Amino acid sequence: MRKIGIMGGTFNPIHMGHLALGEYVMDELALDEGWYVPTGCSYMKSNIEIVQPMERYEMTRLAVLGNDRMRCMDVEIRREGYTYTYETLEQLTESYPDCSFYFIYGADCLFEMENWRCPERIFARCTIVACTRNGASIEKMQEKIAELEKRYQSRIRLLPFYNLEISSTELRERIASGKSVRYLIPDQVISYIEEKGFYQNEVEGFEKD
Ligand code: NAP
């Protein structure tokens, strides 16, 4: 079986934190590839303020270009309606029966995932890789993992990651105020953002992601 990391995200826009996380997990867990999956339409976010799925896909595709182990997948942006992770994982396991999947996420997901649509179908189709950052209470997470493993027979790996304080929200704000985002976003993505004129009118108090 090929071991594939799945990095799902709104990627509005994709940044070095997302890329460093995927690269790091691939090495730590000896994964064969990392697939970046930009979301389609999220029921949890105000989509009016989010760049169109096809454009976020393009930014993500440009970001992983040149990394032989990374791919950008259009599985969610091509699906109609709201994006649900269980559907993506079911689609991927059906299309790629020779692969086992590792869903990569910030460790907070352990406390959120049960509220996502059909969590049991997510846990059944992948190993969750919950990546912690400084200050996270490992003890609480281990308790939560034990609870989820018992309830769903889930496979969960806790993986410490660096504290890279980069956020898409702040990057949009920097772009809107004319500040540089060089070294925070890949150059080819910055060029695309400039060409398209994205994030020029970011409003204060904009929903965080
Ligand atoms: P996002 O904001 O674009 O972030 C993508 C991932 O990168 C998250 O795991 C995030 O972890 C991580 N990340 C961001 N900045 C980072 C940094 N500086 N250092 C390390 N990691 C960083 O994406 P999202 O909107 O949270 O969505 C993530 C996935 O969850 C998507 O695939 C989405 O479809 C899925 N989801 C599914 C449901 C559902 O099925 N019902 C509901 C919600 C989300 P942090 O969040 O910890 O920053």
Return the string of H and E elements.
EHEHEHEHHEHEHH
From the structure provided, what is the oligomeric state, counting identical versus distinct chains?
A: single chain
Radius of gyration: 17 Å
Structural class: alpha/beta
Q: Which strand order spans the largest sheet, edge to edge or round the barrel?
A: 3-2-1-4-5-6
Can you give the mean pLDDT?
93
Span between termini: 34 Å
Bound small-molecule species: NADP nicotinamide-adenine-dinucleotide phosphate
Number of strands: 6
Number of DSSP helical runs: 8
**Helical content class:** 25-40%
Q: Uncertain segments of ≥5 residues (pLDDT<50)? A: none
Shape: globular
Q: Kindly estimate the percentage of residues that lie in beta strands according to DSSP.
A: 15-25%
Main sheet specs: 6 strands, parallel
Describe it for me?
The chain is an alpha/beta fold. The protein has helices at residues 16-28, 53-64, 85-95, 109-112, 119-123, 138-152, 168-176, 187-196; strands at 2-9, 33-38, 70-72, 99-106, 127-132, 155-160. Strands 3-2-1-4-5-6 form a 6-stranded parallel sheet, sandwiched between helices. It is globular, with a radius of gyration of 17 Å. The mean pLDDT is 93. Residues 8-11, 17-18, 21, 37, 39, 44, 83-85, 105-106, 108, 116-117, 161, 164, 166-168, 209 line the site of NADP nicotinamide-adenine-dinucleotide phosphate (NAP). NADP nicotinamide-adenine-dinucleotide phosphate binds at residues 8-11, 17-18, 21, 37, 39, 44, 83-85, 105-106, 108, 116-117, 161, 164, 166-168, 209.
